[in-house]
Amino acid sequence: MRIHINPKYNKLKQFLRDLPADFENTGRSIYKGRNEIKVIEFEGLQLNVKSFKVPHLINKIAYAWLRGSKAKHSYQYGMEIIKRGANTPEPVAVVEKLKNGIFHESYYVSLHHKYDFTIRDLVGFEFPDKENILRQFAAFTYEKLHKNGIHHLDYSRGNILISKLENGQYDFSIVDINRLKFEKMDYLKGLKNFSQIWASEEELEVVAREYARINSQNEDKAAKLLIQFDKEHKIEINRKNKLKKRLKGNC
């Protein structure tokens, strides 16, 4: 077993050693799909534990000896995100279990982050203070992520957590961070990042105009560009989904 732990949480070492054996029968499941996420309370802490799906054979070998697992990336990237001044639930540890010298399973542990809603709850619906939230979302993305060289490669609706503060202000935090790049984000690359939220043209226009204003760019051009980026993204996703269905049909 390999355990990488945030020194602040050394007291959790035994909990982490027991985690692979205890995960199935402890905590409260808040998401179960390809991976599973549970909230587990331990010694006064609310912990968010993400159990990653057991990978196929090639990745079992790669994760064990060639490159880090998704859980390990989540931990490393989380630490770097906070170091750069952006918001993500505080990383606690990563646990990786090997069997017969190859990778078997992994867990990413962070502090559980309480929030009010996500971008998924907002786009496509009537929502109080929606335009203000979208403008602040654009500002957060630039000021906290892109300006600090953080490129979230899965910047989708459910991965942006939002908490309501006072006086019409909102706090944003990113999750599902195992697919990330730390790189220079120019204006067009940053604008294109918003195409993943699968929003309407009207919603995209609000985001694009605010992002352009912050970057001293033409707002009309930004709106047209983001809407085009969005169309291209949707075509590509639909193409991939059709291909997956065909492949499954041939299996």
Describe this structure in words.
The chain is α+β, with helices and mostly antiparallel strands and 251 residues long. It has 2 domains: 2-111, Phosphorylase Kinase, domain 1 (2-Layer Sandwich), CATH 3.30.200; 117-240, no CATH class. The protein has 8 helices and 11 strands. It has helices spanning 13-22, 57-66, 70-83, 119-122, 130-145, 187-192, 201-214, 219-250, and strands spanning 2-5, 28-32, 36-42, 45-52, 91-99, 102-111, 117-118, 150-152, 160-164, 170-174, 180-182. The strands form 3 sheets. A 6-stranded antiparallel sheet has the order 1-5-6-4-3-2, sandwiched between helices. Helix 5 (130-145) packs across helix 7. The protein is globular. The relative contact order is 0.11. The mean pLDDT is 92.
List the helices and strands and how they pair.
Blueprint: E1 2-5, H1 13-22, E2 28-32, E3 36-42, E4 45-52, H2 57-66, H3 70-83, E5 91-99, E6 102-111, E7 117-118, H4 119-122, H5 130-145, E8 150-152, E9 160-164, E10 170-174, E11 180-182, H6 187-192, H7 201-214, H8 219-250
Antiparallel strand pairs: 1-5, 2-3, 3-4, 4-6, 5-6, 7-9, 8-11, 9-10
Helix pairs in contact: 5-7, 7-8
